[in-house]
Design brief:
single chain, about 425 residues, alpha/beta, Coagulation Factor XIII, Chain A, domain 1, 6-stranded mixed sheet, 8 helices, about 25% helix
Length: about 425
């Protein structure tokens, strides 16, 4: 069981003061030890709340919640919302500025890749050392060693120094040790993203088994599918404060409502890394007018552009790319039989699609304008768009991360014929 009341944590932001002169640089080098000591002491001094300056950052402000034994609590929010700070306090890595935390039970946490691992030791040695750090006896580690190694999938490298492991191998071994501690409370930060899809699913299944056995799990993730599938309750945080605590679907809905597309409105006028003769110049691009882009829901693309003179016929192409120039879907006026023209001055092109068929992921956007088979403007990385999870078919089944393809299929007609003749072999 976990009880958190009035939890707050503040930091003082650092500052950089440099003297560009040679004399100033020499003076700064000589006085650095004393100056560094003063700065470290100053960072620990805080005035009253009403007298604080802009160098004080409250990572957490008056957070309250309770997690019952056997409950799985998801914690979501944007980067900088205070999620990791909260978990570090719960894991006793850092102390709170204000408030109180009560933990009833043995705690196991996995907050960073390879936490507590020594790079010069082998995987075998690190399993024993990390297990001891987490509270396991040597006998417990020895009894569970084969199971830990099998779960991690790094058996062939277990006697190799960890410094030769990839980041994915490290997190797999670290999670395997933490998950087999049999803790009363398991705290997991967004580290599973380092592993591959198969290992992520194995970890989620392990956490599900841990929760079903009556243990408590705190799970921080940006993967809404994992949060929805694993958690019974969800905490939404913004700027260090708890803004919602309740049902998982409502928390995810609120999180999505507060999330703008990563490129909801991007100014392109000052971009110099563009191609073409300049007859057309893209000025601005936006998606859904600033609303989130969700798989299966309508998508609106708005492009503002300048023309040096009237153009009777031109072609517009927009491509969504998963990686560098790896096109997934293309929107092209010519292939769709759309004739475009533009007047001299500022114009606005609007494209309405009945649904976004891209699977949830982050995509780079390329934009091109052609006239008379010549490029008049082009940008490779014009913007980026994050497509969020959704229910494209309205069946209550969410579509999550793109492990089943890059795009969703249109709704089809499904039938099974009665008394169908068997297919004969050749």
């Amino acid at each position: 069981m976990i009880e958190v009341s009035g939890l707050s944590k503040r930091y003082r932001l650092g500052s950089s003061k440099r003297d560009d002169t040679l004399v100033g640089a020499a003076k700064g080098l000589l006085t650095y030890p004393l100056r560094n000591y003063r700065e470290l002491r100053q960072r620990k001094k805080f005035a009253d709340k009403g007298e604080e300056d802009d160098t004080v950052l409250w990572a957490l402000r008056e957070v309250d919640f309770t997690v019952e034994t056997g409950e799985v609590l998801g914690i979501i929010g944007h980067n900088g919302a205070g999620k990791s700070t909260l978990l570090k306090i719960l894991s006793r890595i850092t102390e709170p500025t204000e408030g109180r935390v009560v933990l009833r039970g043995r705690v196991s946490s996995l907050l960073e890749v390879g936490t507590g691992f020594h790079s010069d030791l082998s995987g075998r040695d690190n399993v024993f050392m990390n297990g001891t750090i987490l509270g396991m006896s040597r006998r417990e580690v020895r009894q569970k060693f084969d199971e830990i190694v099998a779960f991690s999938g790094v058996g062939s490298h277990i006697d190799t120094p960890v410094k030769f492991y990839s980041s994915g191998m490290k997190v797999r071994l670290a999670f395997a040790v933490a998950a087999h501690l049999d803790p009363e409370i398991l705290i997991i930060d967004e580290v599973l993203a380092v592993g591959d899809l198969a290992f992520q699913e194995k970890c989620l299944a392990k956490m599900d088994n841990v929760s079903r056995s009556g243990r408590t799990v705190l799970f921080v993730s940006h993967n809404m599918g994992a949060v929805e599938g694993l958690c019974q309750r969800c905490l939404l945080m913004e700027r260090g404060r708890k803004v919602f605590d309740g049902a998982v679907p409502e928390a995810i809905a609120r999180y999505r409502d507060s999330t703008l597309s990563r490129a909801s409105a991007v100014d392109l006028a000052d971009r110099t890394d563009r191609y073409g003769d300049g007859a057309i110049r893209f000025q601005r691009v936006s998606f859904n007018g600033g609303r989130p882009v969700v798989v299966g829901e309508p998508l609106r693309v708005e492009v503002e552009f300048l023309c040096t003179e009237a153009i009777d016929s031109w072609q517009f192409t927009l491509r969504f790319c998963r990686n560098y120039r790896e096109a997934v879907i293309m929107i092209d006026s010519k292939s769709q039989g759309v004739a475009l023209s533009a007047q001299a001055g500022l114009n606005k092109l609007t494209i309405d699609l009945p649904s976004c068929t891209l699977m949830p992921n982050r995509y780079l956007v390329e934009m091109w304008a052609n006239s008379s088979n010549a490029t008049v403007d082009g940008l490779f990385d014009a913007a980026s768009v994050t497509v969020q999870e959704g229910d494209p078919y309205g069946t209550g089944t969410m579509v999550y991360a793109p492990h089943n393809g890059l795009a969703i299929a249109p709704r089809g007609q499904w039938r099974i014929a009665k008394d169908a003749a068997p297919v004969s072999g050749t």
